[in-house]
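Pasting as-is:
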Amino acid sequence: MSADQYPISAYTETLGLVYFPRMLSKIRFHATQSLHADFIENMGEGLDKRLCEYLRVSYDDLHAKTLAMKSDEDVLRAAFSTGRELNDTDKLIWNHYVTKLGWRDQVTESLANRKQSSGLQDRDDIVTMIEYFEYDEGRKS
C-alpha cells in the first residue's frame, strides 16, 4: 500500500476529547503502511506525546491498545484505567489547549514556518495548529 492517507481531523472527538481520534488514526494507518509519509518520523511526538502525558499513559502502551482494540472509545477507556480518568474540566482544559495551540503562544513561530513552507503564509485566518492541519491536509480550502 502507498503511504498517502492523512489522519482524521484533530477536531474529531472521542468521549468529549478532541485530537485523541487523530492520534489513533495515525497509528492505524501506519500499521497498514498507508499513513502519509510526512507523519511517520514524528509519531508519538508533538501533540501525541503531550496528550499521552496528559492522560499519564505511555505512547507505546497506547499504540499497542490501539492495534488490539476496535473502537476509539475502548482505547480511551483503557487509557483512563491505566493512566488517569479525565473529568469534564480536564477535557475542557485539554480541548481549549489543543484548539488554541499556535495562537499567540510558544508555537506561533512554528505555525508561521509551517504556513510558509506550505504556501499558506498569506492566510491570516489560519491562527492555530489544528486549523492549519485542516488546510494543509485538504479538508478546507
